[in-house]
Amino acid sequence: MNKTVLIITSYFPPEIGAASNRIFQLAEGLHNANCNVTVLTPLPNYPTGKIFDDYKGKFTHQSQENGITVNRLWVYASNSKNKLLRLIAMLSYSFSLIWFFMWHKIPKTVIIQSPPLLVAFTSMLFLRKKNRTLILNVSDLWPVAGFELGALKKNFSYKLLEKIEHFNYKKASIILGQSEEILTHITSLYPDKTTFLYRNFPEFKAPVIEHHSESGTLKIVYAGLLGIAQGIYKLCNELDYSGLEFHIYGSGAEQNKIEAFISQHPELPIFFHGRVTREALHQVLMAYDVAIIPLLNRIYGSVPSKIFEYAHLGLPMLYFGGGEGETIIAKHHLGWIAEAGNYEHLNTVISTIKAEHISEERKKMIQKEAVSNFSFKAQMNRFKQLI
């Protein structure tokens, strides 16, 4: 008999970004492993903070997507910087979850995405039963990450979030962590907790790497969320543009500032291409020399999933975020590392990148390393045995 699995998440396609891609791949991987998969998620609204046009005016929406049942619930959508409005948005989804739990039969195996902490807390609180396996998928450590980003201060609210965080860990049957740092943090609190290192490996056929003519100009690309944590606006201000072009794909909170900066500095070789689908992005990325992966501040526990995605594309990386990501880049010879937050060092590292460092042969070596070490299928097989 096939196992039935419910996945509770705040992000899911057609929303863009690492979070929605990660959960979609998890759902699809379990489906391909002969599980009956249902996803519980809000009506799509990220990152715009507005319900997508196809879902406006709906309280709930159910669909079948690639063999997966997707239930979308009402949410008060907002990406406001006002903390109260953000809290109301999270609480609204929590209330929708409670309503769903009351009127639907919940399977014995449930995977719950965290953060957001409040959504995970709601699920843990209402679904905790001895005969149910609650699997907490921790992609970032909150409230620690919030403090390191400058979004939270160590006050009463922080202490409350810590209590919620610990409650979630305590009630989980199994905890998945996307990094060794996350699992180290959790086992320091609950040494006997069953944990599993679940990296955000991509699942797509590695493209054939073709030779591109050398223009003499280093083409650096950033693709992803244009949020505060990534610091792309500051990067635009700090890069030394002699001998390079900087290409940007994505959307987010800093988009208007970035577009305004480009408009005010037409002399700089910065190109903003907007948002494209993941499939289209894979094609356009192949034309660039180096992908930059920045974080404005080093975030404990964070390992950008872009590392594994770009490696499968054979795209050399320039990592500028500190932490465990540096270790992965260095261990697997995926590119260059610049000291987190040190823009002078970043520009120095860029100046050392030569044509022979981004050759077709080098890209093929990176891709081979990814296929050997970042296998989604092998990881999914191990995870399936665990649950």
Automatic annotation (TrEMBL):
Annotated Glycosyltransferase subfamily 4-like N-terminal domain residues: 18-192
Transmembrane segments: 84-104
Alphabetical UniProt keywords: Membrane, Transmembrane, Transmembrane helix
SUPFAM superfamilies, per the entry: UDP-Glycosyltransferase/glycogen phosphorylase
Stored PANTHER family: SULFOQUINOVOSYL TRANSFERASE SQD2
Name the record gives this protein: Glycosyltransferase family 4 protein
